[in-house]
Amino acid sequence: MEQLVNTLVGYIWGDTLVYLALGVGLYFTIITRAVQFRYFFEMIRLLRERRESADGISSFQAFCMALSGRVGVGNIAGVATAIAAGGPGAVFWMIVMALLGGASAFIESTLAQVYKERADDQYRGGSPYYIEKGLGLKAFAVVAATVICLSYGVLVPGIQANTIAESFSTAFGLPSYITGAIVTALLGLIIFGGIKRIARVADKVVPVMAIAYVILMVIILGANVEKIPALLHLIVASAFGADAIFGGIVGTAIAWGVRRAVFSNVAGAGEATFSSAAAEVSHPAKQGLVQGFSVYIDTVIVCTATALMILITESYNVIPPGATSPLVEHVPGLVAGTAYTQAAVSTVFADYGSGFVAIAIFLFAFTTLMAYYYIAETTMVYLDSKLRYPILKLVLKIVFLVVVYLGSVQSVSLMWGLGDIGFGSMCYLNFVAIVLLSKPAIKVLRDYDRQKKAGLDPVFDPRVAGVDNADFWIEYSEKAHKAR
């Protein structure tokens, strides 16, 4: 089973996906005139908008929900595996991918808002919705929804649950079956409470956990401040093949840096589109900008924090794929993953390092599981509107919780392999879709630019912007104009 899974992962996560992710990010950076940079301060301002309604959550809550999906085990275990395979240079390319990915995140989240609709007393939207409405390809939309539902409902959750169990076993000696039962029970209480409960938990937990983690990084860097210049030189030199040890694995550094950046921040992969569509905003570009900023938080801040802690404390080994011996072996016998981060933190907090990282992983991974369930449920709602089987939502809840428990007690490599298959398949579908929908997305951005230059708080009217099939926004704009 594991051999088959690993073979499929090799095909899906080959160079094609790496270059596709980089190419799409660069393409959107160019055609949006670097929207992720020129509107940087606007992104921060929009986070303060707390508009919500009976149907929609606030922009900040949607930001936190999306961030809870982005900030997960990829930020701790994923970064460690990227360093183990690609060396310190992988960190540089991970950041590059994040900077380009901000534009992809803007496009997909803007599209999610444009083509959202009301369903079961709340806003629903995401990649299947904009594929059907924007491209008019219902069969493609159903395929995308099915892949996403299977990915987030069955294939991907096991990674998060498994990493929680592994970290608690290392830090506290807690058996995996007990950790799995606790996580499953807590998750059940939340997901049976619906989107509002998920959003309320996310907007409380996510900011606290991210800030605490960055503070930890600052403390560890402070304890090794004299090593920082050499560390930065090592990262850049390794990224461009100028380092004596890591110069021969530049291609691997690029591949693993991009791969883990995409897995971590999911920019352009469609994951954040579902929570983005749930937000109550006056213009789709507002949520697009907010989600562009969440990519910075995930990769440029949180992933980089993990990488710097691991590298500056030399709590890593580098064994490129296919190599018979390690290029460097600073921690003999230590398996790449959460153990690298726990070892790094323990260099400063000897008695509490493993425990702190285990708790951080729990918070990161648990909030990610909440986001995963919401995504799976939204795609199920989309499919149910075509299939008309309401009981499917209940079945999904039960299957999701069973998968979370089983993921806690299964092999680590199997869980990562299944997750990579589901997630990689989804990436291809969404990258293609958002590139095909470039034209309406750019029309929305130009409409936002025009209203901002006029000194207005932008309100979207698809008829003025020249965007078709955005039925929700026609009604919204009419109400907004009457209220002015």
Can you offer a commentary on this structure?
The chain is built from 23 helices and four strands. The protein has helices at residues 2-12, 15-31, 35-38, 40-46, 59-70, 77-86, 89-114, 127-135, 138-155, 157-172, 176-191, 194-223, 228-239, 250-265, 273-277, 284-312, 338-346, 353-387, 392-409, 412-436, 438-453, 462-465, 471-483, and strands at residues 117-119, 122-124, 317-318, 328-329. It has a two-stranded antiparallel ribbon with strand order 1-2. A two-stranded antiparallel ribbon has the order 3-4. It starts with a helix and ends with a helix.
In short:
By secondary structure, the protein is an all-alpha fold. The chain has helices at residues 2-12, 15-31, 35-38, 40-46, 59-70, 77-86, 89-114, 127-135, 138-155, 157-172, 176-191, 194-223, 228-239, 250-265, 273-277, 284-312, 338-346, 353-387, 392-409, 412-436, 438-453, 462-465, 471-483; strands spanning 117-119, 122-124, 317-318, 328-329.
**H/E element order:** HHHHHHHEEHHHHHHHHHEEHHHHHHH
Enumerate how many helices there are, as a single number: 23
Helix content bin: over 70%
Content of β-strand: under 5%
How is the biggest beta sheet arranged?
2 strands, antiparallel
**Dominant shape:** globular
Instruction: State the low-pLDDT regions, or none.
Output: none
Our Rg estimate from Cα atoms comes to 22 Å
Mean pLDDT: 85
Structural class: mainly alpha
Number of DSSP E strands: 4
Give the spatial strand order of the biggest sheet: 1-2
Straight-line distance between termini: 61 Å
